[in-house]
Amino acid sequence: MEIKELIKKAIIAKENETYTPYSHFNVGCSVEMEDGSVYTGGNIEIASYSPTNCAERTAIFKAVSEGKREIKRIVITGDSPYTFPCGVCRQVIREFAKNVQIIIANSIDDYKVFTMEEILPHSFGPEDLCKE
Ligand code: THU
């Protein structure tokens, strides 16, 4: 899928898939998996706060629960200029990413592309546990 089309899906997710009665800060995410399938998600907030789920994890967990395991591209768009994934979400992206492009978008014409190594250097991952 074209990057711009994937960004559009994240923007639509930010508009339609969030539940943010406490912060009113909306984040949308779209993930393109290795097989070409696309999943989207928004942040979901809970009154006791800590169970809140970020948009990235909503989208990724939807994909993983459908049996998908490898993220090719992920787009994040939020209410601040260049909303970057939180530390927890960086680790979750890392779990399902080999050569992922991480796209931080303000609009379909204004975005930046990062690698996993750039946003989570020297990371711990599945290879550290699954030694053959
Ligand atoms: N949030 C995300 O959805 N993704 C991020 O990477 C940063 C933070 C959400 C969590 C919470 O609902 C709101 O933004 C404010 O922190």
UniProtKB/TrEMBL annotation:
EC identifiers of the protein: 3.5.4.5
Pfam families on file: dCMP_cyt_deam_1
InterPro entries reported in the protein's UniProt record: APOBEC/CMP_deaminase_Zn-bd (IPR016192), CMP_dCMP_dom (IPR002125), Cyt/Deoxycyt_deaminase (IPR050202), Cyt_deam_tetra (IPR006262), Cytidine_deaminase-like (IPR016193)
SUPFAM superfamilies per record: Cytidine deaminase-like
Top-level taxon of the source organism: Bacteria
Keyword Zinc attached: yes
Full protein name: Cytidine deaminase
Species assigned in the record: Peptoniphilus olsenii
